[in-house]
Specification:
The protein is mainly beta. About 10% of the residues lie in helices and about 35% in strands. It has one domain: Vitelline Membrane Outer Layer Protein I, subunit A (Aligned Prism), CATH 2.100.10. Strands 5-6-4-9-10 form a five-stranded mixed sheet. It is globular and about 45 Å long.
């Protein structure tokens, strides 16, 4: 079955080589520039896998017209604008781990009533992440789920193209879940 995704990060640089070189050791670089065709900075998604760490169980994108992402008080923000240097909307990737989700559920957190939570598709741990780009909207790869988008100003779902408003290719992020639920047997 393979290891679970335990961390997600975004790297960027003024050149392709610089951006790729920032992917942390032990992480997998997804080899599609998230600004492809938009003439901004080179931006890549990297992720780590580790069965002994807290697994990532969902991801979502926030879209806004200002530079400051809203603190949604729910997931972990990766503080790199996915349209950096390209113009367009400000787009940020968020993720949530199993332990954070379990903590919020045990506290009956009111955050579950917030509109953006419907764009987090909760489920089994994530085992793979990929990105597809094209001149037309790519189709979702078999067995994968598209990361959904949320407009923070009008609290609605949006097309989760990470090049939205910047021109260039259509670019979407997808993840694949483990077929089996993970339980913590550490008592």
């Amino acid at each position: 079955m393979g290891a679970f995704v335990s961390d997600v990060t975004i790297v960027d640089g003024g050149s392709d080589a610089e951006a790729r070189g920032k992917c942390p050791a032990g992480y997998t670089l997804v080899p599609v520039d998230l600004n492809k065709g938009a003439k901004g900075r080179w931006i890549y998604l990297c992720f780590a896998k580790n069965n002994d760490a807290d697994p990532v169980v969902s991801m979502a994108l926030s879209f806004s017209s200002n530079t400051s992402p809203r603190n949604m008080g729910f997931g972990s923000l990766i503080d790199v604008d996915l349209n950096k240097g390209a113009g367009g909307r400000y787009i940020y990737l968020w993720y949530i781990t199993r332990s954070r989700l379990d903590t919020l559920r045990s506290q009956n957190a009111v955050v579950f009533n917030a509109p953006w939570t419907q764009w987090y598709l909760f489920g089994n741990p994530i085992i793979d992440i990929t990105v597809k780009a094209g001149s037309s909207r790519p189709t979702t790869p078999t067995g994968y789920i598209r990361v959904e988008g949320y407009d923070v100003s009008n609290k609605t779902g949006v097309d989760p193209d990470v090049n939205q408003g910047a021109g260039g290719n259509y670019i979407y992020i997808y993840y694949k879940r483990s077929p089996a639920l993970v339980t913590n047997n550490n008592g």
